[in-house]
Every structure is written in C-alpha cells, then in structure tokens.
Amino acid sequence: MLWNAIRIWILSLVIVYAVGAGVSTHLTYLARAIPDEFRGYEPWLKAGAFFPDTLYSCKPSDKLAQFAERAHWPRFLISALELWQDRYGSVSRKRNCEDSLKFQAFLIGVFSHQIVDSSWHSLVDGYSSHGLLRVMAETEFDGDVEEAHNYLDVMGDFIVMSNVFNGIADSSWRYYTDTNWSLPNEQDVMELLRRNGVDQNDISYKELNVCLMRGLSASVSELYVVLNRRVEILNVAYGISPVAREFLEDCWQGGEFDIVAMLHACLPVYQSLFKPHIDMELQEQRLQLCGNLPEVSRTLSEYNGNLDFQYDNGVLTVSSRVPRSNFGTSIAVGRFGEDKKLYAAISAPLEDSKGSVYLIALENGAKAKAVMKPFTSMRGLAVHTYRFNDKDFLVVSEPGSNRIHFYLARKRILTIHDRTVDAFQLQLSCVADINGDFVPDLILSGASYGRNETGCAILVSGSSLISYLNSDQPAEVEISALTAVRLNGGPFKKPYQHFGAALTSSYSPSPTGFLYVTCQNFGMVLVYPLSGLHSDSLPMYVVIEKEITLFKTYNYDDVKILPSIVHGMFGKALLSWNYVGNSFIAISQHLFNNVFIYREINDKVEFFLKLELQHDSSSYSSTIGFGSAIQYDDQHKLLYVSSPGSFDGKGAIWRVSMQEIINAVKIWKQDILYMNAVSHLYFVNPQTDPKGASNFGKTMQITPDSRIIIGVPQLNYGNLQSKQLTGAVIIK
C-alpha cells in the first residue's frame, strides 16, 4: 500500500519512531484552549491531552486497550468528576489545593483530547457523514477511511506544526519539547483506573508514567523531523493531498477552527462541573450537547475597544486584541450606518466561539464604530453588501444555523433561514441582479448541503424580499416562503461532489447571461443560462480548465470524484467583471497557482487566457495559493490576485492590467501569461513577524476609491500563548 511505503520512508528519517501519531496536534489544540487560570499547570494539561492514547499499545493487553477506548468518551470524564467530588469537591478545605488543581488540569487535557478526536474522526453523533476524516477519505483517498485516518494522524501532525513555526528560532517549538509532563497524585490516578476496570495488577503508576513519556518522545521526534526534514516531509504530505492543509483548517466539522470554537464553547461547561453537589447525569447530557447549543443573535452594539490601529507609510493595519478570533476572514464595503458614510464590515468568526462583525469607518480617518455579536456559527461568517433603493444593507451569513441576516443602520431587518433536515453550511455567496429587474437577487450556496454533501445553489429573487426590507418590523422568513430556484447539481448526484463550492453570474446579466457554479470534487465549473432558469435546469457548458464542452455532448455517466492532486481545486474562486463592453470571468485553480480567464461573446463562453504564477523556490507549490482571492478594480482596470503562501508563507498580492491581458491574447497570441515578481508583484505582507502561517490575502475587497482591503485572518497563528489567532486587515 502507498501508506506503508510512506511510513517506511519516514522511519528512515527518524531514529526513534514517533509512537502515538497525532500527539503534536493534540498539544496544539490544547494550547488554543488552556484557561488563563491553568496557565501554570501545563505539565498536567499535556499529560491529560495524551492520556486517552497512552495505553493503546504501550503494554499490550485487551483490558488496557478497552480502557484506552473508554477514556475517549464522556462517561469516563463523568467518572473522573465523581472521583474529584469524592476527594476534593465535597471537602471545602481541599477544593483548591494543589492536588485538586493538578487533577482538574489533567482532566481538562483529557477533555480536549475527546473533543479533537470526536471531531477529527467523524464521531460526532448525527454527523458521521460530514466530519473531517470521512470527507478526506471520500474526496482524497477514494473512500478508504483507513488510509485517510493514517494520513491525518501522522501527516496531519507535520502539517499543523509546519504552520506553527518555521525553525528553532520560533519560541513556540519549546512548548512541544518541554519534558515536564506529569500525572496527578498517584492515589487519584490509580483510583480513576480502578473505577474504570483497571487495577494495580494490570499496570502500575510507574509503568503508566513510562507509557506517558512515549507520547512526549513522539512529540519531540515529530518536532525534530519538521525542523530537520521539513522540505522532504511536506513534499510527501502535499504530494499525496495538496488540499490537506485547507481541510485541516477549514472543514466545518472537525477542521481546526471548528474545533477551537467547540473547545471554547464546551470548556466552560466542563469547568462548571468542578463544583460541589453536581447532578452528574444531568451534566453528562450538558457535556454531550454543549457544542451544539445555540444562542440568540444580538443587534449591533457600540464598539468595545478590541482593535488596534497602526499607520505606516500610507498602509493601515487593523488588528484584533482578542485571541482566537480570526478577524479578517470576510470583508464587505458599504454605507452601513445612519450617517451614510463608507464602512468596511470585517468578520471575526471565532470570537468567543460564536463570531463578531466589526464596522470600520473608511472616511475621515479609519476607526471602529460598532460591533455586532454574537452569532451562533462555530466556524466563520461571510459578509456582503446588498444595495437597494439607495440603501446599503449589511448581510451576515451564519452557516452554523443556516441563517442569513440583513442589517440596516445597526438594526436587524430580516433573517432568512433554511430548516430543511439536510441543510448544512448554507451561506450567501454573491449578490447580483440575475433576472434584469433592477432588484439585486441572492445567490446562496452550501457545498456541504445534503446528507452526503452533494451540495446546492439557491437563487432567491430580490423582488420577494422587498416587502420585508421596507418594513419597520424585523422579520424571520423561511426560504421556502420566498421565490427561489434551487439547483442540486443534477444530473450529477454523487456523494461529496460539493456542488456550489463557489458561484458567480455574468457581470451584466441579460437574457443571455450565465450562472457559474463550481462542482469542486469533479474539478469542473457548470455554466447555466439565466434565461428561463428553474430548479430542473441542466447546464449549458461544462468548463474544465481550457476545455469548454456543451453539456448535451458531455458523457456525464463517467464522471467520478477526483482527488485534489488531479483537479487542483479548479473553481476555488470565481469573479465576473466588465471591460469595454465585454463580460469576463476568472476561475482560479489555487493549488496549481493558475487563474483561468474566460470571455462571454455572442451568447457563448470561450477560454481567453491563463495566468500562471512563477513562484519562488522557497515555497511549497501547493501551499502558495495563487488565486485564493480575486478582485477587480473597475476604475483603473486592474485585476488583483492573492497568494497567501508566497515567500515561504509570508503572502503577497499580484496585479495585472486588463490592457496587458488583452495584448497577450490579441497581439502576442499567447494563451498563458506568466506572472512574475518584476512585472506583477504589487504588495508583500509588511508584517515582519506574523508568527506562523497568517493567510495574508485569504480575502480581499476593493473600495470605491480603489483602496484594497486585505484580510490576514490567521495573524499570530504560531503564537501559542495569550495572543493567538487574533487576525488583522490591511488597508492600502
């Protein structure tokens, strides 16, 4: 098997085999979640974060393996809490003694391990077809769950650590190598084992410590492989699955940011159990539900002082002071306030594990004016501008609950929701007048929609929103009550095809305009004619890189799920614009560092030109991400493309004029335009120490006065202390 060959290759690099794959990942997530009051108890926290895996193979026996499995489930934590209540909680003078706090820290570590494993390995009750492991297996490993599991547990560690630090000069590496792991008081640990079916004859406290140190050895071994064989390891990892890093971070069920939000939502629930006289049966139910408990969205409130503003040579950097917020994930520009002045709406989808949206004034000196919080989404938001009747509505997607909120002058006006049983991760993708009635329409999408993530695209007629937007009273309405066209990817109905991963429409819709929908894991974009569009419409064209095929001649029976190493995420980002009366479409393939440009002419779509980045050798090709975001400056006729991984992860923005694009085709007769640093490099991340992979340029927006707003949502990713994952935006 392929995996066995890779494992042998890794063993040739590491003298000491890294027992217990996944250790460094568990330590990283633990660092994201340590409560401030337990910062001084890292030795016991780390021991707990590895403890559930300690006895799987250290001292082989069926009894110990069964105990290890039991330690991965909430009932084990409840038995540990009952023990803590007996020994410390019920005795007021012992409740806050050192042994009590060490035991609590240890159990917090175990709790974090359980949250990570249940999410990573698709064990969340009711979501087994949606988790990270399942989706990786179906899309990258031809349905082989074991292969995907092995990849995640070993290569996942190396990918996560490579994002945290670049070398030994980074202070974060010490967190993984400190040799101070410690079990709690011997009597407490052995009694915990006894209550879960293991006694002194099965394993001693000393032997348990030896097994625990295997986890530390694994962490240190993995760390030094990354430090000394970084290039070789990552070439293997990305050679198997180029999209792995994005899956690990962004998968809505089990990706890093989902887990971080879940940990911060659930940890306070777990910590609240360390009180005397708790009803354990009730608390076990709370523990199992805490990640899914919704909260009511609130309206816009006054700015809370959580942002820092810094000017330098005409460049403004706005960064968050709030750890684990991912400020800068999505950006919208509009006149959202009562004063009718221009604002940037910046989302921070992880803030307080629920999400916030900040409004930053763009006129007369940038400053924050208001903050909207919280939302129930555990993983990210999209923000858009909806312009109608001389008003700019701020539209905030809440994919965790399949809700779309409209705000005007700080007040929520309308909420649209989808309560379909298989609705998952529905959000607004773009706003466009697709039927030519001069009322903007909504194009919603959910690539993970459906029980097996087939995906969907929903076009909501703007005319059906008018009465709600003009009302003085806030309203909530089901999508089913609105005039809408629902596309489900037909005739393609394959599990995990991810239809609707990205969408756009012709820039100037007309009876001959088109709707473009990415079907991500087929590596294609489907093109639908807007005229007469209905829920049973079939595409007119299938676009795969340079090839544009009439759907009626396309043999769609042979279509199958392709891994990212084949399709390169063709269709990652879509953008339409108008130049000299012609409608152009850009489709990115960011894992291969390409952007394909097409032109609509005579009611047809034709390939025009491919932009290909000539990348620097210091970066891994599939992590450069040229095409992660695309924007067009209509005033100066310039196309901007981001590459968050350029220059060894620093990140850059590139630009090319439409005149050069036209000349390349019309005069030089080229079908590829190579983007290079001499002619096309516009802006490199100015931050000298972004601490880890900051994702500079993951999102961009152009303001009406041609300023560019660049999202840096993972600023301080590599900071494992208090100011981690704060995020920022840069305005140039």
From TrEMBL:
Gene3D superfamilies: Integrin alpha, N-terminal (2.130.10.130)
One CC-aspect GO term: extracellular matrix
InterPro entries for the chain: Integrin_alpha_N, PLPC/GPLD1
Alphabetized Pfam families for the sequence: Zn_dep_PLPC
Domain Phospholipase C/D span(s) in chain numbering: 25-174
Gene Ontology terms, MF aspect: glycosylphosphatidylinositol phospholipase D activity
Stated name of the protein: Phospholipase C/D domain-containing protein
